[in-house]
Design goal:
The protein is of the alpha/beta class. Helix content is about 40%, strand content about 20%. It has helices at about 10-20, 40-50, 65-70, 70-90, 125-140, 160-170, 190-200, 220-230, 270-280; strands at about 1-5, 25-30, 55, 95-100, 140-145, 150, 175-180, 185, 185-190, 205-210, 215, 215-220, 235-240, 265-270.
């Protein structure tokens, strides 16, 4: 089976390649190889590669960056996904589209399942949800993979929450203030990749799936476990999300913890963190 992997150097793109283990013939494409906003270029690549699956991990990320660049956010997260959905449907290609728990408003007071109705509070969540809707309505053969906050290695220069905290400490910070009221389900990208491949192999019906590691944690708990396992002498101090929102323009949901009623969760995130720590410790600090 042939897979065209879009967004190959990000966290999920990196994980999907490392966890493939020969089961698919993957053609990786990053931003330099394929501009997902260019529908003609995407059409040409699909016709050249003739994949059985397209896995799209690319996205314009971040609540504040999306608010500052709404046109770009819409172009990447929504319009490009609409075009990709139509192109894949016409060629009978299965589209595997990555989504986010940020489509929820955080007000449920319980874990969000695949059956819950999204209600994004900000432009990032809105553009991602609109992309999901295009996939569901324009492509007959698809999987939408909704994921929570991630940790894992990557090939490009981007960074996610735990990377940023780690870099602060490597730069000399001996204490960090982190919100204890922002709740998600920390998940190891390599485990998510295994879950995605298992889903693709399973023959389960097309649709939306939440894939995550077992467990729920605040950002405070997430960071505390990470630095304890890294054995780094840094103090993690409790704070609130509101403490960091003075200069922010967008609303952010506080509790977007998800679960699945359609598939099994992966191992506990604390156990998965052990494997991530091994990867980090094997890398030179300059690579982080």
């Amino acid at each position: 089976m042939k897979v065209l992997l879009i967004g190959s150097t990000g966290v999920m793109g990196t994980a999907l390649q490392s966890e493939n283990r020969g089961r698919f013939q993957i053609t990786p494409k990053d931003h330099n190889d394929l501009e997902i906003k260019d529908v003609n270029q995407v059409r040409r690549v699909l016709d050249e590669e003739k994949p059985d699956y397209v896995i799209n991990t690319s996205a314009y990320l971040g609540v504040e960056p999306c608010a500052a660049n709404p046109g770009e956010a819409f172009a990447v997260n929504t319009e490009a996904v609409r075009n990709l959905s139509k192109l894949c449907d016409k060629r009978n290609i299965c589209l595997v589209q990555f989504s986010t728990d940020s489509v929820f408003d955080g007000r449920k007071g319980d874990l969000y399942t695949e059956d819950d109705q999204p209600n994004p509070l900000n432009l990032y969540g809105m553009t991602k949800y609109m992309g999901d809707l295009f996939v569901r309505n324009l492509c007959r053969n698809y999987y939408i993979i909704r994921i929570p906050i991630l940790f894992g290695p990557r090939q490009n220069a981007g960074s996610i929450f735990i990377d940023k905290m780690y870099r602060h400490v490597l730069s000399g910070a001996d204490e960090l203030r982190i919100a204890d009221d922002v709740i998600s389900c920390p998940s190891f990208s390599n485990d998510i990749a295994q879950g995605v491949y298992s889903l693709m192999d399973s023959g389960k019906e097309c649709g939306l799936y939440h894939i995550k590691n077992e467990g729920v944690a605040s950002l405070y708990d997430f960071a505390k476990v990470f630095f304890e396992k890294m054995k780094l002498p840094v103090r993690i101090l409790r704070a609130k999300a509101a403490d960091f929102s003075v200069n922010e323009t967008e609303m952010k949901p506080l509790n977007t913890a998800i679960c699945s009623v359609k598939t099994d969760h992966m191992r506990p995130w604390q156990d998965a963190m052990e494997d991530y720590i091994k990867i980090l410790k094997s890398q030179p600090q300059e690579a982080l």
